[in-house]
Structures are given as C-alpha cells and as structure tokens.
From TrEMBL:
This is Initiator Rep protein WH1 domain-containing protein. Residues 30-167 form the Initiator Rep protein WH1 domain. It comes from uncultured prokaryote. GO terms for molecular function: DNA-directed DNA polymerase activity. Keywords: Plasmid. InterPro entries: Initiator_Rep_WH1 (IPR000525), WH-like_DNA-bd_sf (IPR036388), WH_DNA-bd_sf (IPR036390). GO terms for biological process: DNA replication initiation. SUPFAM superfamilies: Winged helix' DNA-binding domain (SSF46785). It holds the Pfam family Rep3_C.
Amino acid sequence: MARKKIEPITSLGNEDKLTVQKSLPLFALWRSELTLAEFKILDTYLSRIDSHKPEKRAVMFEKGELEKILGVKRINNQDLETRLKHLMGNVIEIPDESMKKGFRLVTLFEEAVAEQDDYGLWQVKLECTQKAMKYFFNIENLGYLRYKLRCITSLTSRYTYIMFIYLEANRFRKSWDVPLDELKQILDCDKEETYKAFKRFNDLILKKVQKEMYEKTECRYSYEPVKKGRSVVAVHFEVETLPKASLEEVDENQMTLEQWQEEAVKEKELWQTPLEDFNFTQEQYDELFSVLITIPDSKLPQSSACYGSVELMRYHYIDQKAKEIKRRDTQKPIRSKFSYLLKLMKQDAEE
C-alpha cells in the first residue's frame, strides 16, 4: 500500500505568540548531545504542530525562517547538512515510567528535505518518526509544560538553554540543592579543566548564564554555593513563581505548574522507591538526600544499566543498600533502619 502523503505545516507566524508545548519526557533531552541550533529547530517544530493532529506531523520551514531561528544571514550547504544529519541521527534516551528498569532509545525525526534558492535561502521540511509521535502528540497523559518560543530562539549559549530547560523541569521544587559535579555534567562541562575550580565555573558559566537568562527569558532565579568545610559541594537554586497566565493563554488540556507540583509531591522520587517498605518520613528522606548528594560518583554503581545517569546511579545505590538492610534484618533485627542506612551512606560520603 502506498504511503499517504503528509501535507506539511507552513509559515512560522508571529514568533511572540508561538508557544513550545513540550511533554515532560522531552525535558530529559538536556542530557542529549543536541547542539543549541538543533534544540532551537526542535522547539520551533514543537511550537508549529497541533498536538491533537498527529496526521500533520510534517513542518515546513519557509525561506529565511531557518536562518532567523539560528540568528544567521546565510547557512552554507555543508553546515546545514551536518546539522540535519546530527539532529536526525541522534539517538535519544527517553524516560518511560512504564519500565521499572532499563531505558528507551528513539530517534526523533525520520525525514528532512532541504532545498536552496538562488539567493542562498533554505526551505526545509521536517517530519518526526512514528515512534516519537507519542511524545509530540496527544501528550495529556504524559503531562507537559509550555514556554514562549521567543525565550529560546534569542539565546546564544547552549549553557543558558540547558539551564533554562533544567530550571523549568525542576520548577515544581521551588528550591533545591544539586551536587556541583552533577550540575557540571548537566551543562556538559564536567571534563573541562578550566571549570574545575568553582570560582572559574561561577565566573565563566553560572554568572553569564543568569545574565543572559534575565535579559532574554521570563525565568527568574537565584543561586548560591553550598559548602562542606571550605569546598563547594553543591549549588542551591531558588526559582521565582511565574505570574499566573491569563485565561485566554491557558490551554484547557495543559497541565499547569500548580497541578504538576501537586502530583510531584504525591509521587516518590526515583531514588526513594526502593525505601517504600521502610515507611520513612519526609524529614528522614530529606536528611538522607542531603547525604546522598555528597557521595562521590566513584561510590555509585557504574553499570551500563545506569546509562551515565546520576539519577539512575543513585537509584541503584539506594536499591543495593535497601536489599542489604533487608537481608541483615532477617539475620538479626535492625532496630532503626533509618539510622542504619544513614550510617552506611555517611561512611561512603566520607571515604
């Protein structure tokens, strides 16, 4: 049977009014190797589709639109081909709550058609893959958030984009600590010797990121170093609450930040799930987490099942400790499983 032709969506429209509607699993793409230009193309694609019309999954970037998105006057043939090949060939790890263990890998786009006119301007058609459609269309069950496209198209630093996505994905926490090493991994600068000292990392990345964020987005936040002795071990973030959107701006199917926050409170974080049988209080979880973030990566499981994710490493670490406690408890009852676990974790944090 011949494949039905999919008519592309055309015309970028007024950028100020375009909104990126991104399912929560797609927020995990900050872990990927996509470049800033590729993130901008993806977000523009998301802002152009109607999430309730999966039959219209092809988007046409008209002449001059792609150049505008990337902030350049002209793109040469080889550069565009390289960008599109990388975007289409990038295998992405997508979080999937239906899988207790393991991971799901997908490619986002299956076809890109590019044609250049006599003036050097490109017309490009993009179409997402069948497997990726569940993350682009009818995403109400997955939950999703929205932000203005103009917030990210004007950004010039990948660091700022990743920080923007990271803060939006964690906005429901309002305030939290992230280990310094993990933050460097998130921003993909953990292997750079230049940023080894916190002062250099702060001056060259964190301060510049916050400055650009304030100038070009609606995201407002503060941060400060968390010290252990004289060393900075984590960064504390506080994100300001966004002003409530007017009724005409709210999609009736959109999960609001308030709803997401309520759901997040009800659900256990991944690392907490192996401890559910112990019935710890929230205060005990908070104390455990304050120690967990100080445990060096070398003490966390490095299995391929973790796929380089610190979150998964912590999950497997706690899972191993929980199994050890249950095994020892059958041999000799443990009076306080919380105190026992805390002691084990502190030993790993101090070694």
